[in-house]
Protein: Alpha-amylase
Organism: Luteolibacter luteus
Amino acid sequence: MSTPFRNLKESFRGASRKQGTAVRDLHEWLAGNSAALAATKPEAEFNGTMMQGFHWYLPADGQHWNRLASEAPALAKAGITGIWFPPATKAMGGINDVGYGIYDLFDLGEFVQGATPNPNGERRTKYGSKDEYVAAVRACKKAGIQVYADVVFNHKMGAEFEEEFQAIPYDPADRNRPLGDARTIKAYTGFDFPDRNGRYSTMKWRWEHFGSVDYNSLDPGYQAVWRMKENDFEDQVDIEKGNYDYLMGCDLEVDHPVVRGELKHWGKWMLQIAPIDGFRLDAIKHIESDFFNDWLDEMEASVGRDLFCVGEYWTPRIETLSWYIGHTGGRLNLFDAPLQNNFHQASKSGGNYNMGRILDGTLMKEFPMHAVTLVENHDTQPLQALEAPVEPWFKPLAYAIILLRAEGYPCIFHADYYGADYTGKGRDGIEYHISLSSHRWILDRLLLARMHFAHGPQYSYIDHFNTIGWTRLGTEQHPHAMAVLLSDGPDGTKWMEVGRKDTEFTDITGHVGGTIRSNGDGWAEFRCNGGSVSVWVEKHPELVNLLEELERA
């Protein structure tokens, strides 16, 4: 990280901590410093690319950590610089749980425990054992890839026993409306982790460590969110449903000093057992936003270095994401949910989407320094809770946007790179077979273009209903120019400036044959096929070698 950029970020963090500072003031700070933020780049030019290293329906064979380890060298060579690992901790569903039904943070596939014990007494999670997890992290690091651990702090599930306590029922659709007075309820809130038996942590979780639950076994038919009498709903959360503090399971009370201390202890423990480089934070719209400033400060202090942190605040509302960035003092990056939604809508529109507005209302456009851009993830893939898939024909266009433009930190989805084939139930209860095609061929070419050509000044031509494009003019370290053109409708052409006079360009994707020569002013009329993308790069001897090496891979 360059010194000017570090100073700007520290200035933002300092402003956010001043007592009485309004979120609006932080937004104004961002607006006033956006040009400076965009201009501060590391001295060594580097285009990082993250991969989400899993999808929801991976086989539960316990081999995923081993697969990630074995794939690491090839992924690094292709241009992947960071991998977001799935939750490594033991979850309620045992070896079949993706990891978000969190049970024991300190069990990474080491103990025989959980609400759904493994049939043969296996200790592993869906992905493998603790030792295999650590080995996979180290293999990625050896290949030059950063690793980001998935953190699930919102809830716990799969308690060993029930407890009785006083709670107030609230309307699940409006958490500001109580349905009655406090009463005694009984719920599964007791966690002892018997097989772990105090190793790594001696804390035993009880009802007072949680803020709310959604089930009362003394009155199982009564539909309510039961808030513990002693605790309030957190107020720095999303306002959907009046207050979206409660999501599922036993909701953690992060204001409780014992809970907060335990989550800090776990984070430092994770940083000790494996050389991870940061965290992906799950479901942050349901967790008090101030908590993560405190937590991340302590994590970075414990290792004496900066840690990358991206949060999942899933909403299409840019105003809400803007509020969160301001309220957390710019500490966290956020997934660009509005951009993913734009891609979904465009892919469904059959050429009737205004591509000139594809970046409107997105973090990529409004807060590029905090945007982790994506096309798909495990929640938006077919049959999942936030199902909003991007149609296959549009994915190369969408990936060109996130990989070849200057803004944001792009994230490639595992199923888009490797493909996926699975069966599962939809929201209608019907079982479907889903086959997702691998886009590895085009993604490898876009990654090649990102590494070698997506550098320097960017000129945008996002000014047409169907056909949009941009150019990158290169730098001293990466001196070759690039022009990207895509259309969601008919064949497209566009005059764009590339800053190279009388220079030949070739389409690295191979979608359009032949070459295009720029004129004496450094402009050329580039073209693309309908419903397709073309990436025109300077034709030079090194390019031939790069493409030949890619074909061999």
Residues 397 and 470 are 13 Å apart (CA to CA). The longest strand covers residues 161-171. The chain has a mean pLDDT of 91.
